[in-house]
Design goal:
This protein has about 325 residues and is an alpha/beta fold. The chain folds into two domains: about 5-125 and about 295-310, NAD(P)-binding Rossmann-like Domain (Rossmann fold, 3-Layer(aba) Sandwich); about 130-290, Dihydrodipicolinate Reductase, domain 2. The chain is built from ten helices and 14 strands. The radius of gyration is 19 Å and the shape is globular. The two termini are about 10 Å apart. The model has no long low-confidence stretch (mean pLDDT about 95).
């Protein structure tokens, strides 16, 4: 590739799409186009006039990278057209995350997977991303045998309309209904965290149990995590490992408010799990779900791939 990469943002008017455009601008990407549904076409977001995301527009062959922040059904419809046009599609929905042969990538954890694919790279769930950022260094040091996690997910994870509803609703009238599908035992959000964690860490049999709830917070997801390891791992050693890991920042008490607007995953309260079998740790993390939990992770994937393509070009 030569010149500035041509980047398309599909779903540019949504909560994640708007953050994506701002991050691209802040990181020096200038050759960017915004796409959304027909009802949003013609509006202006972050100084860009929004184009309609049609199969023809995405397949025109004038995009190098296409960042998708739309629902599962629109992604299944539109992503193949962007790939047909020669773009690498990085998709935030659950449409392709567990598809065999499609890498599910967090650059600090398994970034090499993105370099082996020329069509689609899947961007993980907004809770799976910070979770695996924390689990990877612990696994490398002591081996994971079991993970339990409880998530406390903000309104922004359900989209811009849900954020506006929270702003307009009196506290005593809040009804934080779960927006995930339920199979009689688990919400699909809980299943996603288990299966995506296994795929990213390449631990297909790792026992993972998740409980997910929505909380009255605008931006920022928090997670309580309990891990059991094969080898003993003292809390102090775990803290040292996490302090050295990419994308993590130690905080005594991580909170969504502290995480909002930040690129790092905040992690702290690292302590022995008093209910464990002796090799257990408990910890707490918080992450801006619109940034590292979504938009930033996708951009980091794109930048990783672009750097790899440049490195592969003849001198």
């Amino acid at each position: 590739m030569t010149g500035s990469p041509r980047i398309g943002v599909v779903g540019a008017t949504g909560a994640v799409g708007r953050v994506t455009l701002g991050l691209l601008r802040d990181r020096g990407h200038r050759n960017v186009r915004a796409f959304a549904s027909a009802r949003s076409a013609g509006t202006v977001v972050d100084g860009l006039r929004v184009e309609e995301a049609t199969p023809e527009a995405l397949a025109a062959g004038d995009l190098d990278i296409c960042l998708f922040s739309v629902g599962t059904s629109p992604s299944r419809e539109l992503v193949p057209h962007a790939v047909r046009g020669g773009a690498l599609a990085i998709d935030k929905s659950s449409a392709y995350r567990l598809e065999p042969g499609i890498p599910l990538v967090v650059p600090e954890v398994n970034g090499e997977r993105a370099l082996a694919n020329e069509g689609i790279v899947a961007n993980p769930n907004c809770c799976s991303i910070p979770l695996v950022c924390v689990l990877k260094p612990l696994h490398e040091a002591a081996g994971l045998t079991r993970v339990r996690v409880a998530t406390y997910q903000s309104a922004s994870g359900a989209g811009a309309q849900r954020m506006q509803r929270l702003r307009e609703t009196a506290p005593d009238e809040l009804d934080l209904e779960m927006t995930w599908d339920f199979d009689g035992e688990e919400f699909d959000e809980e299943t996603k965290i288990r299966e995506e964690t296994r795929k990213i860490l390449e631990l297909p049999e790792l026992p993972v149990s998740a409980t997910c709830v929505r909380v009255p917070v605008l931006v920022g997801h928090a997670e309580s995590v309990w891990v059991e390891t094969l080898e003993p791992l003292a809390p102090g050693h775990a803290q040292e490992l996490l302090a050295q890991a990419g994308s993590l920042r130690l905080e005594d008490v991580p909170t969504p408010r502290k995480a909002a607007g930040e690129d790092e995953v905040l992690v702290g309260r690292i302590r022995p799990d008093r209910a464990g079998d002796g090799n257990g740790l408990a910890l707490f993390l918080a992450c801006d779900n619109l940034r590292k939990g979504a938009a930033l992770n996708a951009i980091q994937i794109a930048e990783l791939v672009l750097a790899g393509r440049l490195a592969a070009q003849p001198a």
